[in-house]
Write a structure and sequence with these properties.
alpha+beta; 5 helices; 5-stranded mixed sheet; 157 residues
Length: 157
């Protein structure tokens, strides 16, 4: 079963975020708190959305996403920040169901893009996305500003 997250799900979501970060060899980078995530998802101006995959009423996976906008197409799209299914529940269709939920939101709302990034060493995920018919965007390089460089650019160093 796939469903939108509720405030009561925040502890489970944070737990899975930590599991995902450990899998991606970046557990040391996780700073999110339950309070931050609760505000980001359920505050006055939500910044992101989460859908959960459940098995026997237990959250076994999630996808966290937010809206983007395509200047070329003139319509919003979805950027999937994270897709995670707990290892013991992989292969059960939960990842496909979560992706299908986001695709359904796109279709229902007239969004024309569903985008995400995957680590270049994550062969199981790459294979999963390739099977869906997703197209790699190899011509684009990702950039990110965080921490001190972001503050410096903002003039707050």
């Amino acid at each position: 079963m796939i469903r939108p997250a509720t405030p009561a799900d925040v502890p489970a979501i944070v737990g899975m975020i930590r599991e995902l970060a450990a899998y991606e060899k970046a557990a040391h980078e996780v700073r999110v708190t339950e309070e931050q995530l609760r505000a980001a998802l359920f505050g006055e101006h939500p910044a992101a959305f989460v859908h959960l995959a459940e098995h026997d009423r237990e959250a076994v996976g999630f996808t966290l996403w937010f809206l983007t906008f395509s200047t070329w197409r003139g319509v919003p799209g979805i950027y999937m920040e994270d897709l995670y299914v707990r290892p013991e529940h992989r292969g059960g269709g939960h990842g496909l169901a979560l992706m299908g939920e986001l695709a359904g939101i796109c279709a229902e709302r007239g969004y024309q893009r569903l985008e995400w990034a995957v680590l270049d060493w994550n062969e199981p995920s790459i294979g999963f996305y390739d099977k869906l018919g997703a197209v790699r965007q190899d011509e684009w390089l990702k950039y990110r500003l965080t921490d001190e460089p972001l503050q410096r650019l903002a003039g707050r160093d």
